[in-house]
User: Fold these one by one.
Assistant:
Number 1:
Amino acid sequence: MTPKPQRSGPILDAPASATETSIRQLIANGKSKAALDSAKDHHKAEKTGASETLLVEAYAARIRSLLDQNLVVEAKSLLDLVGERFPSAKGRLEELRLLSAARGGSVEELLRPLLDPGLSADQRAAIEAAVQNQVHDLAALAACAALPAEHSLRRAAAALQTALIAVTSGPVAEAALSLPEVSHRSPLAPWKLLVRAIACYYRGEDDACREYLNAIQPDAAAARLIPAMQAMSGIKTHGPLTPAARLLAGQTAGNLAALRSALDRLDRTFDGDKPGAILAAVQVSVKECREIFPAKIDRLKQLVSVRCALIGLDRERVSKALGGPAKRDAAFLRLYARGMEQSDDPEELAVACGAWDEFRQFAVKEGWFKANGSEAAELYLHMARVLQKIPGNFLPQIRNSILSRMRGASREDFYFLFPEKLYERACAIDPHFEAFSQWLAWAKQGNGAERVAEAWHRIRPMDLEPVLFLMEQTAQRQAFQTALQYLDKAERIDGLHPSVRQARLRLLTGNVLKHLQQKKPHLAAQRLEEIQALPQSQQGDRPAMLAALRWLICAGQNDQPGITAAAAETELLLQSRVAAELLVYGAAVVSKRNTAMLLRSSSAISPPERTQIPAALARVVALVRDMQGMNLNLPLAYLDEAAGQIPRNSALDTAQLQILGEAGVCAGHGELAYAASTAGLQQGSLTEPSFLLLRAQALPSWLGERRAVCAAAAVELARKQQDQHVLEKAVQILHNFAPGGLSLNPGHVDEVVRKEKETSAFPTQRDSGPDYSGLIERCDCPACRRKRGQAVEPWEEEDEELDDIEMDQILDELELPPDMPPEVAAALLLEAAKAVESGETLDDLFERISGKRRKKGRRR
C-alpha cells in the first residue's frame, strides 16, 4: 500500500475543496456555529496552514455572532481560548478583542493602549473606530481612568455629555453647541452632530435637523438614535423601530403629531384662495401650538402674519385669528422684508425697503449689530439693490406719492427710497471696493457718475477703477489735459494694466486733433513729438497715423514742403495712395480742417486703384481702431465703391472682410456689410459664425424674419466653436426679434448656411432672398407682425384693458335708448374704444359702422 504523502503547507495554486467552499458559505450565511463545527473537523483531517486559517475565520465569525447577541462574556471566553490555541492568529483577532472590550463596557481595557508610544497607526485607527462605533456611554468615557484627565478623548466626551444633558432639558444657546473640544476628525464627532440635531428638533428646524442626521455615519454608535428622531420628526424610517426607539419617540414627541397635522393643513389652505378657510386654519394651528409647544407661539404668529400679509389678507382679521398681533421685532421685520422683496410689484418693493429700515432700527436696539457696523453698511447696499428692481420712472412716482401724503416729511425721512443716499451711507460706514463699484455702476445709468468716482478716488486713492472712469469721462469732453493727469495717477497705481498701457497713445492723439480743431498747430506739433517718443507709437501701421497728423499740422502752418513730405511718407508707409488719402481725410474731418483738397472723388480714381479701395479701407479702419484716438468718417462714394469691388477681389482675407463688414454696420451701409459677409461665408466653416452674424446685421430692418434665422444659425455655430463674442451679439439680435427664442436643428443650420452662401445679391423689395417661413412658428398677432417688420393697421390693435372690464357693469351705468339691445350697445362701445386708440375721427367711425357717408355741416 502506497503511504499517503504528508502536506507540509498550503498549496496556494490548488483550487479550494468542496469542504472549504461549504464552510465559507456557512460563514457568509451567518451560520457561524455550523461553520465552526465543520472547520474543526476539516482541520483535524487536513492539519495544514490553510485549514488552520479557515478554522480561525470560523472562530472569528462565531465570536462576532456572540457579540451581536450581547453575549459578551461567552464571546470573551472563546476569544481567550482561540488566542491560547493559535498564538499566530493574535493579530487577526485584535479587532475582535477591541470590539469585545467596547461591547462589554471595559473602556479602560479598550483605551489603555493609546498611552503606548510604540502603538502603530493601524492599531490606533482600530481603537478609534471601536470608540466611534461601539462606545455608547459618554459618561464612562469621560471618567476613564486609563487616560489622563487632559486627554482629548476624555475632554471631548465630557463636553458632549454636558451638551447632551443640556439640549434634552431645555432651550440652549447656539454658542453652547459649538463644542470646540470635539474636532471633525474625532471618533466622537458623530455625537456632536447628534447633539446639534436634537437642538434643531426642539427649535422646530426640521430641515437642519435632517441635514445633521444624514451626516452621521450609519455605523456610528450615535446613529442608534437616528430612527427614533426620524419618527419624531415625521420622517419615514427604513424598517420598524425597536421597542426602545418606539418608546423614546412616543415619550418625546408627545402631541406634536397633532400640531404638525394642523400646520400641514394650514400650508394647504394657503395654496388656495379662500380667506375664511385660511383664517380658520390659523386659529386651529395657534391653539395647538399654544397647548403643545408654547415656547414657539410667538414665532408661529410672526410666520403666519407675514404669510397672510403677502397674500393681502386683512390685517385686523388676521390679528383676531392669531389671538393678538404678532410680536414686532427684528426677526419679524426681517421675515416681512424678505417676503415683500420677492414681489415684482414696484410698491411692494418700496415697502420692502421701508421694512428693512425698520428692521435696522430694531436690530440695533436688540443688539444684532451696531448702528455704524459693517452689517448696517451691507444692509444699505441690499436695499439699494432692491430699489434697482423697480422699473422705469416708478420710483420717482412712488416717492412723490408718499411725500405728498406725508405732510412735513423730508427726503431724509424716506432715505431708503433714494439709492444715492443708501450708497452714500454704505460707503461712509464701510468704504470697500465692492460698495463703491456698485454705487458707480448705478450712477452710470443716470447722472452724477463723475461725482461718485471722485468721492471713490478721494477715499480710496489706490483703486484703479474710478481713475480710469474719470479719465474716460474727461477724454470724452475733450478735456485731454485733465485726462492725461488722471492717466499719470493710473500709471502710478498699475502701469501694466492693459487699459492704462493703451491710454496715453490714444489720449495724445485725441489731443493733437483737438489742437487742430482749435487751429493751434504749434501745440499739436508739441503733442505729436510726445507721441513719437512713445515706444508703442512705432508699432504696426501707427507711424502712418503720425505721418497723417503731421500732414494736417503742416497744412495748418502753410508749410508746403512739409505737406508734400508728410503726404509722401504716409503713402509710403501704407503702400497705397488711396489708403493715405482716406486716413488723412478721416483725420481732417475730425479736426474740422478743409477736406476738399485731401481726397479725390471716386470717379477720378483709375480702375486699377479702385480695386485697391477695399484693402485700403480695411487697413485704415484697422489702424484707426488700433489707435482709438478718433471716430473715422468715410465718404459714401468710397463705401459704395468698396461694396462693389469686394465680389471681384479674391485677395481679401477673412480679417479684412470682417473689418469691412463691421465698418459697413457702423456706417449704416448695409450693402458693404452684406458684400463682406458674402465673401466671408465662402472662406470656410471656421468663419461661418462671425459672417452669419454680419449677414444678420447687414440685412434691412424690414427683413426681420431672415435676420432672426441668420442670427439663430450663428448662435448654434458659435456655441459649437465656443465663440462667446459672436454668441452674445447674435443672441441680442435674436432677442429683439423673438424674445421667446428661436432654435434651429443642425439640418436647418446647414440649410441656412447654404442658402446664404448662394444669395450674393443685396435684398430688394422685389427679391428679398431666401424664404425661411418654414423654420419659424408664425404668429399673426399685431405684436409679432410688427417684430417681423410687417405693417400693422391701427384698427388691428385690440384694447387689452377693455377685455378686463366687466361690460355688464358699464352698460348698467349707462342710460341706453329703450329700443337698443345690450349686445348692440356693447359692440358700439368696443368699436368706439378702438377708434380712440387709433385716433380715428367721429366721421370715419360713423362711415365704418354704418357704411354711409356723414353729411358735412355745422355740428351742434
Number 2:
Amino acid sequence: MDELLREFLTETSESLDTVDLELVRFEQDPNNADILDKIFRLVHTVKGTCGFLGLPRLEALAHAAETLMSRFRAGSPVTGEAVTLILAVIDRIKDILAVLERDQNEPAGGDTDLIAPLERLAAQSVAPAARDPDERHNPPAPARGQVRSTAESGGEDHKPDAGVARQSIRVQVDTLERLMTIVSELVLTRNQLLDMARRLDAPEFHGPLQRLSSVTAELQDGVMKTRMQPIGVAWQKLPRIVRDLGSELGKDIALQTFGADTELDRQVLELIRDPLTHMVRNSADHGIETAAERRARGKPETGTIRLSAQHEGGHILIEIADDGRGLDTDRIKAKALAAGLVAPTDLEGMSEAQVHQFIFVPGFTTAERVTNISGRGVGMDVVKSNVEQIGGTVDVKSIPGAGTSFVLKIPLTLAIVAALIVECGGERFAIPQLAVLELVRANGGVEHRIERIQGAPVLRLRNRLLPLVHLGRLLGIAERSGTEKGDFIVVTQVGGQRFGIVVDGVFHTEEIVVKPLSRKLRHLSVFSGNTILGDGSVILILDPSGVAQGLGAASMRGQDVEPAAPEPGAGEEKSSFLVFRAGSQEPKAVPLSLVTRLEVVDGKTIEMANGRHLVQYRGRLMPLLRANERVAIRRDGRQPVLVFAEGGRAMGLVVDEIVDIVEDRAKIELSATTPGVLGSAVIDGRATEILDVSHFLPLAFEDWFRGRSEERQRRTPRVLLVDDSPFFREMLRAQLQAAGYSVALAAGGAEALALLAGETDFAVIISDIEMPAMSGLELAAAVRADERLCHIPLIALSSYVASASIEPVRAAGFAQFVAKFDRPGLIAAVNDATLSLQRAA
C-alpha cells in the first residue's frame, strides 16, 4: 500500500472517531463555538486530503457536510435532523474507507441519498445575523473575556500545536511488542544475576548489579509507558452508541465520563473494549427506564449512565453505573429456577448478591422478547470471561428503583506481573499477586481453624467460612491428610468467589515474565502459563480460575461465601482449535485435529506455475491456497501456512497470522453462505469464523475426495453419519471424505431412520450417543430390530469414553466406541467395519 495512502487512512480514522464524539457533545451544547470549530476543521481536513489524493467520492461527501457545518458556524440553529444526517455521513465515510483500505480504490457508486438532504438543509439554513460564513478569513476582534478559536493553516493559535506534532512519531505496534519481549528477557537475566549474587555472596558484584537493576527498572518503565494508552480510547464510540440507542429505544439518556485520561496497557485496553460496550448497552436497554416511567417514579426524565476510571495500586477500577430501575431480584430467581440453574432449596439461602451472579451465566436473560439490542443472553457472560481471563474481577451492586453499578478491577498490564512463589509437594508454583488477598498460617485456634462440612474442608476466617483447595491433591503431587502441621493457606478471590489454596510453603513475591504454555499442557485449566525464576528454574503459573474448579460442592452450600454461578453446558465436550487471522483482524479457526503441520515459509521460495502458487515442500510441490481473497501471499519475509496432508499429498492454506491454540466448546451458532466458511462460533470468548476445510482440499487436488484409483472410485463405501451438532457433522464428513468414503448426513435419530427407510446401501452407520429426542442407543435398537438394516455395522461416537459407559453401548449393538476428535481412531474403526462387512459378503 502506498505510504501516503496509509497515513491518510490512519489519520482519517482517528479524526472520524473524534468527530463522532464531538458531534454528540455539540448536539447537547449547540452554542459551543469551540466544539463547532473543532468539528469543522476535522471535516475540512478530510475533504482537502481527499482532493489531494484523488478520491472524488469521499471529497464530495465531506464537502457537503462541511457546507452544512459552515452554516452552523454562521449562526444557523443546530437541529437534531442535521446532526443525525452528518453522523450518517461519517458512517458512510467509514464504510468507504474500509473498502479503500482493502482494495486501495474507492468503491463504485454515488451518495446522492446523503448529499441531497445535506444540500437541502444547507440551503434552508439562514444565519440570523447574516454572518459571513467565511468571516474566519477576516475575523473581528474578540470581545473582552471571549476566547476565539482560529480555524485555518498559519494562525498564531496553531504554532503550539505544530510544535507538539513535531515532538511525536508513530511507531508500529509490532516494534513495541518486540521491545517488550526484549525487556522481558532482560528482566529474567537480571533476576538470575541477582540470585547468583545472593548465593555466591560476592560483594564486588553488588554495586554493578544494583545499577543494572535500576537501569532495567527504568527501561521497563519506559517501554511500558509506550504501551500505555488512555482508557478514553475505548470510550470514544460510546457517546454515539448511547445516542443511537436512546433514539431507537425512545429514551432520553445522558452519558457522563470521568477519568478518561487514566492509562493502561494497550493489550488490556483491547480486551476490555467489548465488555465496556456490552455493559453500557445493557445499562441503556435494561437499566434506564422510559421518560414516562421515570416521571411516575419522581425521577428526572433524562436517565444517566456514569462511566469512570481510576488507578488503585497496580490495578484500574472501572465503574459503569446507571440511575435506572435496578436489577429485579425476584425475576432473576424465577428465570434461574426455570432454566434449572439452581434448586429451590439452595435458592432460598442465597443472598441478593449471590442471586445477581446469575446474570453472568451464558445464555441467561430476563428480557421478555428478543430484539436487535438484547434478549439473546449474550453479553454479560462475555464480560465476565474476558475480564477474568486477564486476572480481573467484576462486582455488581444494585438497589431496586435506584440503579445498578458494575465495578471492574483489572491489572494495568499482563506482560510482566508480580507473583507469589509457593511450594507444594517439593515443586514451586507462581500465583498472580492480583488474585491474592492474604496469607494465613493454619492452626488449631479459633481464628484460623480448619473445619469440615459434609466432608469438604473449609477455613474459618474471621467468622466466615471459606472453601479450601489442597493444591497437592488437586495436582496429584502429594498426599497429605490435613493442614494442621504448619501448612499455609493463600486466600484468593476470583470474581465474587473467595477461597483458600492450601500449600506447603511460601517464599516471596517476584516480578515474573509470563510465557505461554506448551501445547501439551494447554488442556490443563489449572495453569495459565510458565516463567523462569532467578535461579533458572522453569515453574508453572497457577490460574486461580482453574484452581477454583477444584472446589468441593459441599463446601459451597449454605455458607457465607460467594458461589460460582452454575455454568450451563459444563458437560459438553471441549475441542482444540487453531485460531488465526486471514484478510482481517477478526479471528478465524479450524479444528486442530485437521491440521497436519504449521509451517512458516520464506516468501522468496513461493513460485508460480500454471497460474497457481506453489512451494517445494519435503521434496514435492505443494499448492498454496489463500484462506480468502483478502489474504495477500507475501513475496518476501515469513509466510504462515497451515498444512493439510493425506495419503502422500499436501496442501498449504495461506493465512496472515497464527494467533493461538484454544480449547473451547464447539457449537456453530450462525451458519454461513460464504464458500469455505462453515459458520460462526464463540471461541475463547470471541465470535470466530470456522473454516470448512473440505472446501479447500479439492481446490488443490480435484481428486482429493475421489480416491486414488478407478477401482476405489467404483467401490466407494457409503457411510451414514448421525450427529445433532452441525459443526461435528461437517467436520467429521470432511475427515471421512478425505479417507475415501461417501458420506450421508442426518441431524438426529428420527432423520436417520427416515433416510434408512428408503436407502439401505450403507457400509457403516456412525452415531453420536448423546442426542436430544432420540439418543444413539435408541437409534441402534431401531436399526437392530429392522431386518433390512441389522447387518450394517454401528460405530458409536461420544465426548466421554469411560469404561463404565462402554458396556451399555456394546449391549445396544454398537461394534465400536470412539471418542470425538479421535481422527485416527474413527478412520480405523470405519475401515475395520467396512472390511468385516466385505468379508461377510
Number 3:
Amino acid sequence: VVMGDVFGENREVFKEERVESLIITAKNLGKIQLSNMGLDKLYPIAFSDMIREILRVAFAVNASKKIYFAGKKEPITELAIAHALQKINPLLKIDFHNHSHEEKEKFPVDAVSLLDENYPEIEEIENYFKSLPLSTEAKLYEKKESDKKEARRHPYVNIQKFFILSGIFIITVLLLPFLVVASAGGGTYFLLKWSVADLEKGNVQQAKSTAQNAQALLNVAQNAQIMLSGELGVINQQGNINKFAEKIQMGKQIASSLILGAETIQNVKDIIKGQKKVSSEDLSQIINNGKSVALQLEKIKGEAGLSAKEEQELTQISSFAQFFNILDSVPNLVGMKGPKTYLILFQNNTELRPGGGFIGSYGLLTLDKAAVSSFTIHDVYDADGQLKGHIEPPFAIRRYLPSVHMYLRDSNFDVDFTKDAYMAAFLLQQETGQQVDGVIGVDLSFVQGLLKGLGSVYVPDYNETVTADNMFLLTENHAEKNFFPGSTQKKDFLRSLFASIQNRLTQGDAIGSSFVSQLIESIAQKHMMFAFSDAATQELFTANNLSSALWDDRDTQENTINDFLGINEANLGVNKVNYWINREVSQSVTVAQDGSVNGEVTLKLTNTSKGTWPAGEYKSYLRFILPNGAVLNAITINGQKQTMVPAITDFLAYEAKGFTPPVGLEVEKAEENGKTIYGFLVMTLPLSTRTVTIEYTYAQKIDITKPVFGYNFDFFKQPGTEVYPMTFSLTYPSTFKLLKGPSFIQADEANVNFVSNIAKDMSFSMSFTKK
C-alpha cells in the first residue's frame, strides 16, 4: 500500500508530512508558506481513513491487485488547502516562496485507489484544523523548531537518532515474522468464519473465494513461521513455534475442505439446474471431492483440540460421513449405466403408520445419467382401484381398520421398512403393471426439513407461500379437506408444491450448508428412507442405517446382554390425530442377584386435540419390539393391570356371525428378524392421556459368578415420529461396579441412568466388574 499525504491529530510520526505541516503552521503561526506558487500537488488522507483502508486490503475477500494507493487518484494543490483554511480563519496569511517540495509520485502503474472520487479530503482537513487546540499544537511546533536548532548546534543528536531508528528497525525485523504469523492467523479465523457463513446462506462462489483467500493468507503465515522457527530456536522456544505450525496446518485443512465442499455443492447445483450434462468423470469427481471433505473433517476433529462448541459444529457437519460409505453405488443408482425408476411413497406421518405414515400419494421418478428424465405424482386410490384379485392384509388392518384386501396405501405396515418397500413395489406392479428399481419413503417432516433449509417456497398455482410452520395446515386445506376417492386435489397440490421446491432449488442461495444439514438430519431421523431391489446395494444401505431395517449386527458376547427396544404405533382411526400426539418413554432394566434380567417400559401418549376432524380419538395398534425370547409378564394401562389373552388373528373367527371378543386385552405375539414383538390395540381420547406399561423377562441371564458382565443397548426409532424424551435406568447387583460406559450416563451405587431426546436410533455399551 503506497501512502498518500497522511495527516491526523496528535500523530507525531507524520509531523514532517506536507499536509500535516501546513495545517500545524496555519494553526499556530497564523500563516502558511506555499512553495512553487502553491501549485505543488498533494494527496491528503486522514490517519483514521488510512488505517481503515490498510485493514480492508489486508482482509479483502477478492483482492486481485498487488499495489494499492492510499489516496485519491486526482491530487489537489497546496493553494486549495490554504484557501480552505482561510475560510475558517480569514486572518490567515499566505506567503509564497520559490522553494519547491519534493512532489509525491502519481499513481504507481496498475495501482488501485483505495479512496473513491467523492472522498471529502478538504472537509477532513477543515475538521482537523478546527479540532486542534492552539496550546498543544504551539508546543509541538515550538518543539519541532527547537529540535532543528538543537540538531544544528549538536550534530551528535543526529547520530543518536540514527542509532535509535536503527534499533527500532532491527527489533521490527526480528518481530516481523511473529507479527505476520499472528495477524495472518487472526485474519484467517475471520475469513474461514465468513466462508462458513456464506455456505450456510448458499453463496457458494463467495464461500469458495473467501476460503481461497484464507488459504493464501495461511501460505504467507507458513513462510513467516519458518523464519520465526529459526529465531525461537535460538532461545529454545521451538515447542511454541510447533504449536503455531499445527494451527496453520489445521487452518489449511479447513480451508481446503471448504473449497472442496463449495465446489461439490456448486456441481450439484448445476446438475439440478440442468446447466451441466453429467458424465461419469464428473460424477466421480463429485464423489471423490465428497470423500476428501469427509476424511479431512474427521482428521481435523481427531487432531485439532477443538472447543466443545467447535467440536459440536464439526460433528454436525461430519455427520454426513455415513453417506460417503454408499457413494460408490451412486453412479448406478442415478442411472449412469442405464435408466433407473423409483417409487416415491409420500407418507403422511400425521396419520402414523409403522413404516412412516399413511400413503396418500406416490410418485414415479426416473433418473438417466444423473438427470431427472421423468417425475410424476399419483393419488394412491388411482392405483388401488386397479387391484385385481385378493392379497391378504396383516391381521390388525383387516380386523381393526377394517380392510378386507391389502392395498398399496396400507403396504407399510411392517416394522421393517425394507419389507414395507418390497410389499409396496409388489402391490404397485400388481395394480398398475409398473416395475421399479427401488423405493424411497418420505414424510411431511422431511418436506418441513427442506422448507427449513430453504426458508419458504411460493406456490403460484395456489397463491400460497409455504413454510415449515404452515405446511401442515396448508396441506390439509388444499389436499386432504373434503377429499374423496377419485378426487385429484391431493396430487394436484403436491405436484405444485414439489414443482415449486424444485424451482427454488435452482436459485443461487438455495443449496447451502444449512439446507444440507437439514437434509442430513431428516434422513438420520428416518423421515427419508431407501430400499432397493438389488441385494448388494440394499445390504450397503442397511448397514449404514439408511433403510430403517430391523437389522442387528451385534455379535453374541460371553456374559453380555444384547438389549433391544423399539416402539411402533399404527394409527387405524382414519384421521390425522398424530399431529396432536405427544409421547414420552421410560425404560428400566434390572439385573437381579441371581442373574435374571427383567425389563419395564412405559409409554405415555397424550392426545392434545379437541376432537374435531382432522383430529379425534387416537386408535393405535401398538407394538413393542423386544430381544429374542423376551416373555411378556404384565400390561398396565392408566394404572390398571390388564388381563392378557392371545389375539384372535384368524379372520374366519372374528368375521364370523355372532363373534364375541374374548374378555381381556388381546395381545398378538410375533417373531421377526431375531426379535420378539408384542402388539395390542390402545385408544386415547381427545384431551386425555394413556399410560401403557409392559413388564417382561429376558431370555438371557447373567452369570454373576464371573468377574465381568456387559450390557449393550439398541433403540429402534419408528420412522415418522418426531423427537420425544426418554428416561433410562439400569440396576445391577451391589457386588458390581461400573467399569466403562458412555459419557452421557449418570452412575451411583448399583444404578446408572440418563435422560435423552430420541431423534434417531441410539446405541451404547456398558461393562461392569466385581468390586
Number 4:
Amino acid sequence: METNCSERLDAALAAHRSGDLRRAEQLYQIILACNNRHFDALHLLGVINAQRGDFGKAVALINEALQIRPNDQEAIYNLGNALLSLNRPLEALKCFDRVVAIVPTHADAHSSRGNALSELDRLEEALESCDKAVEIHPGHAIAHNNRGNLLRNLNRPGEALDAFETALAVNPNYADAVNNRGCVLQDMGRLEEAADCFDKALKIRPDYFEAHNNKGNVAQEIYHFEEALACYDRALRICPAYSVAHNNRGNVLRRLGRYEEALASFDRAIKLEPDNPDALFNRAGTYQDVGLLDNAIADFERSLDRDNDNWRTRGMCYAAKRHACDWRNYEEDTSLILSETRRHGACVPPWVFLAMSNSPSDQFECVRNWQRDKYPISNSPLWKGERYNHDRIRVAYVSADFHEHPMAWLMTALFEQHDRSKFEIIALSFDRAKNNPIRDRLVNAFDHFLDVYQKSPREIAELIRDMEIDIAIDRKGYTHNCRPEIFALRPAPIQVNYLAYPGTMGSEYIDYIIADRFVIPPEHRQYYSEAVVYLPESYQPNDSQRFISESIPDRAEVGLPERGFVFACFNNSYKIVPPMFDIWMRLLAEVEDSVLWLLEANAAASRNLRQEAESRGIAPERLIFAKFLPHHEHLARLRLADLFLDTLPFNAHTTTSDALWAGLPVLTCLGNTFAGRVAGGLLNAVGLPELITYSLDDYTETALNLARDSDRLTELRSRLARNRLTHPLFDTDRYRRSLETAYETMWSRYQRGERPACLSVSIDQGDTRPG
C-alpha cells in the first residue's frame, strides 16, 4: 500500500510540475482515498486549488494537512499566500512570521510577509521584509518586484523603477515586473513608455487581464476613449469577475456620455466588490449626471461609510445634496468642510465651495489646496520664454462650452465682433456637443475652430505651443469638464482666467483674471494668485442681439395663477440655501396670493423644496416649477414674473443678465466673494444700483416694499427697459473694445519682458493704467 502511495505521489508530483493539474488532482484524490491523513496529498491538493483561484478550499485542505505536520514550513507558507488572496492579511502575516521563525533565511516568506504588511498599510515594515528577502537572495525577482510596488506606494517612483529593472535583469520575461514598471511610468506622466510596458507584458502573457486594464487606463488618460473601452472589454473577456475593469469601463462610458451603459458597468463592479468606495463614488457621479440625485446621495454616503476620510467624496456628496435641496445636516456638513479646509487643507472641489462660503480667504484656501493636489505646475513648461512677433495677436479661447450653454449666450457676439485687423481668434473646443444653431454660429465666429475633444490635455497644450498662441484663455476654470492640466503645461506666454470660474485659479501658471472693481474690490486682491485686469464697467460680456421670442405665454400656460405677485428665481438649485429660503417663505407669508416661481432643476429638488415650504407653514403649491425651454422662449416667459430674487453666497450670473435683458428687475444682496458680487456688478452696469442690498434684512425689506408698491416696481421696469439699450451692460461693441485693450496691454508687457501686473482699462481714453 505504502509503495503504491509513494509511486502515485511521484506521478502526481510530476504531473503537477508539468502543469497537468487535472491529472495531479486525480492522483492526490486516489492517495487520499487510501489514506485520508496523507500530508503531502492534502497539502498539494490545497496548492492546486489555490492555483485555480479557489482559495477557501485551499485554506481548508492545507489546514487539514497542518494538523498532521504542524511545523511544515512550506505548508505554512502556502497557507499564508492563500489567506492573503482571501484578503485576510493579518492571518497571513502570522503564517509568514512562523515560517521565518523556523527558517530565518526563507526568502520567499520574507517577500510574502512584505505583501501582507503592505495590505495592512504597514509600508515601511513591508519594505524591510522585502529588503531582507533580496539580502538573502539577491536574484529573487519576485522580491524585487514586490519591493518596487512598495516603493511606488511610498511615492518613491525613481527607486521603484530601479527595483523593477533589477527584477527584469534577473528575469527579462517577468510579466508582472514589466506591468508594474508601466504603472510607475504612468504615475510619472510618461504615458508612451507606460503603454509600451503594458504591450510588452501582454506579449509575454496574452491573457494578462490586469495589463489590458492598465493599457486602457493610459488610453483613457490621453482621451482615446474608444481604445480604452476596447482594452477593458478584452480584460473582461479573460476575467469576467475583474471588478476593477468594470469600474474603469464605467468611467470611460460616462465620459462618452453613454450613461446607461456606465451605470450597468458600475453595478457589476459593485456586485463583485460591494465595499469598493471608488465604484460607489463613480456610480454616484453618474446618477448625478442623469438627475437621479437620491440615488447619487445614497451611493456617496455608502462610499463615505467605507472611506470616511475622503474629502473629495465628502465634497461631492455635499454638492449632490445641495443640487437636491436636501438640507439634512446642512449646518453640520457645511461647518465640517469649512473647518477642515481652514485647519488641514481638505481637498473639496472649488465649485462646491463657492455655494457654501462667503469668505474670499476660505475660497482662496480651498482653491490652492485643490490646484496643488490635482493640477500642479509642470516641471517642463512647453513655452520656453520665446518672443512671438505676429502680424496679429493670436488669442485662443479654450473651452468645452461652445454649444447651448450660458457662455455661448453671453459671448457669441463678442467672438463675432473681435477686430480681425488686430487679432486672430481661435477656438479650441473639447466638448461632445452636437451641431445646433448656436454651435453653427460659434463655428463661424472664429478664424479657426478646432475640435480637440479626443485630444489629451498634453496634446492640446502642444497644439497651443505649435500654433504660437500669444494669449490662451481658460474658459472653463474649475467648472464641469474642465482641463486645467492644459495650462499647467504653460503652452502660451500669456494665460488668462476669464468668465467661467468666478474666483481665482490659485495657480502660478495663470497670469491674469478678467474682472471689474465691483466683483474684485482692490482690497480683495490678496485672495487672487492672478494679476487682476479691471474692465471699466462689467467683467461680463453680453450679446446685444440675443433673440427673445415674440410669443409671450399667458400665466396659465406656465402654471402660474391668473392673479397675484410672482417672485421668481431661476438659479440652479444648488445655489438655494436655507437662510435665503427662509426669507422667501416669509415674503410669501407677508404677500397675499404671491407665489415663488423656480426652475425645475430635478425632481428631488422640487420635492424637497415643497416639503421645506410646508414645514415653514407655506402651502407647497405656492411653489411653481418651470420646465426647461429653448433659451429664446425662456427669456419671453421671464416677462411674466414681477421680481427676480437673487441668492447668496452664490449669485445669479448669466441668469441675472437673462432677467435684465428680458426686462425683469433683479434684487440682490451683496456678498464678499466674486461669486457673491456678480449680480450687484451687473445691476450697477445697467443703472439700477438701488436693487443692490447690503444685508439680508435690507434684502427682505426691499423685496417686501417692491411687492407692495406697484408704482415703484413699474418705474423700475420702465427704467430697465430704457437702460438696457443705453447703458454699458448690453453694449457688446463697447465691451469688445475694452477687452481688446486689455489683451493689447498684456501682449505689450510680454513683448517688453515685463511680468504680469494689475491693470485698469479706460475705454473712453482707449488705454490702460497700472492697478
